[in-house]
Sequence to fold (356 residues):
Amino acid sequence: MPLDGNAIGGLLHEVFGTEMTDAVATCGTCGASGRVAETVVYLRVPGTVVRCRSCSAMLMVISQIRGTSCVDLRGLAALDPRGDG
Amino acid sequence: MAGTAIRGRLSSRPRPWQVATVTSVIRETGSVVTIELEAPGWPGHRAGQHLDIRLTAEDGYTAERSYSLASANGEPVAITVERLDDGEVSPYLTEELRAGDELELRGPIGNWFVWNTPDGGPLMLVAGGSGIVPLRAILRHRQRSGSDVPVRLLYSSRTLDDVIYRAELERYRNDGAQITYTLTRTRPPGWSGYSGRVDAAMLAQTAWPAGQHPLAYVCGPTRFVETVADKLVGLGYPSERVRTERFGGVLWCRWMGTRSAACCTRCSERR
Fold:
């Protein structure tokens, strides 16, 4: 079963250097906006896959190997860490 | 994310791994313990936030897990952990960890599934199993801060003995919290409360009417949270007033007779 964006708060903090669970993510596929905390998250796929709660499109993929984080954000239209949309 | 800038300064508030010392391990139920920790570099936390725990084996293998903070704002770090029989981390935390042991942690984490007194209410808290943990932090913070925000808790548990923090929750009743249990597996003789899974009818009876502009926090296994959140929205709660947190569900495996993190390869082999 998938989890949600709360589960990767620590990982996202590591990658972005700031708290991201209340950031607003806008899906590049369907245009829906929502808090990162409310996205659909699959851990250990391998890698971490974040999907849109409205249309299930892939928003982010984060893989960590040998101390390097590979971050694919192509599914996002916008990511606003101030949380004001 | 073509053409998108990430605003805000990066690396402004690092969350490094730090070593914390276990000060006590308190047994809550047969399979659940609360672990209190002394974390010298801890910057403080808010009700609803969580932390990450990292365990490292002698061969360097590491396992990370997230746990909700069980303590209120201003209290020492505490987490409450349920044992999953096939788990990699929880059997160690619930059975082997002792006062004086050290754990690596980072946090606090989360800025959405968080309640501060100015967020107000009325608060509708819905817990499935150990999903009560961050909601207990919210109830505790509400009481410690002297807040008079009206609060209702609907707590789904397998049995009455599996209710975590039962004595403490009963005390909150005296402060005006309205607390309802529903028992999904077995009920004690003479049980007059709800039984069975949370459904639309139960929520319609126990949740604040949407017209009172409630703020809901729902925490539990994924399927539980999805059901409850859908039903609350169906009752007229705006989705942005329904904050959710899902954890890897605790399943009762019919085949192995154990609490399980996932219904698993062992089950498929048996079928």
Remarks:
- The radius of gyration of chain A is 12 Å.
- Residues 3-80 of chain A form one domain.
- The beta strands of chain A are 3-4, 24-27, 33-35, 40-42, 48-51, 58-65, 68-72, 76-80.
- Chain A touches chain B through 33 residues (CB under 8 Å).
